Amino acid sequence: MLPQRNSVIKILIADDHPVVRHGLVQLLANEPDMTVVGAAENGLEALDLMGKLEWDVAVLDYSMPGRSGLDLIKEIKRQHPEHPVLILSILPEDVHAAQVYKAGGAGYLQKESATEELTAAIRKVAKGGKYVSPAFAEKLASGLAHNFDKPLHESLSDREYRVMWLLASGKHINEIAAELFLSPSTISTYRARILKKLMVTDNAALVRYAIEQQLI
Q1: In angstroms, what is the C-alpha Rg of the chain?
Q2: Taking the model in full, what pTM does it have?
Q3: Lesser CB count within 10 Å: N end or C end of the chain?
Q4: How do 85-89 and 34-40 pair as beta strands?
Q5: What angle do CA 86, 73, 57 make, to 5 degrees?
Q6: Please, are residues 134 and 144 in contact by the beta-carbon 8 Å criterion?
Q7: How many Å apart are CA 152 and CA 204, to the nearest integer?
Q8: Digit-coded pLDDT (tens) for 161-204
Q9: Half-sphere exposure of residue 108: CA atoms within 13 angstroms, side-chain side
Q10: DSSP string, 23-63
Q11: Closest Cα to residue 158, out of 63, 80, 69, 58?
């Protein structure tokens, strides 16, 4: 259930950096219509708190130890479909935001813009809307106007994108399998599909692609 008009928005935060968590709590403490009801340091703790606390909006770091990113968004939306999820990240918005929205996220903000944009984003998604930053909206409009070709990684499914990102981040197949609760052979199958779609031949080339596209 979304908050009623003029009621206080209950916010749950998850970020693995204590300084960031503290900064977000302090930032939101200055807003009379917002209160932070819980702060988690990883995705699993966030899921646990979501089942125990009353909350309206989740504000999550995209990259945390354990479950994070697209898989975490999809799991939260499965368990709490009425609750919006905002993503904060140091990663480029124009590279990752589309995947976040596709997975069910309500908004994507870069951490450097949080001070200026976060409270407005929370208010918008709490009312059932989607938050797109002014900078990203301008890039979207520019891209549509010029009919830019989509990069190869946009052809990946949500799961393929997650596996690609973990491979590019240096994770081994067994580590990825454990993190995603899949078998190593399944991850190997995903890897083969990813390499084919990105038109690269090995992990080194995959890492180069991810760096060039600012995916990591």
Answers
A1: 18
A2: 0.66
A3: N
A4: unpaired
A5: 35
A6: no
A7: 17
A8: 989 999 998 899 999 999 889 999 999 999 999 998 888 888 88
A9: 25
A10: HHHHHHHT-TTEEEEEEESSHHHHHHHHHHS--SEEEEESS
A11: 69
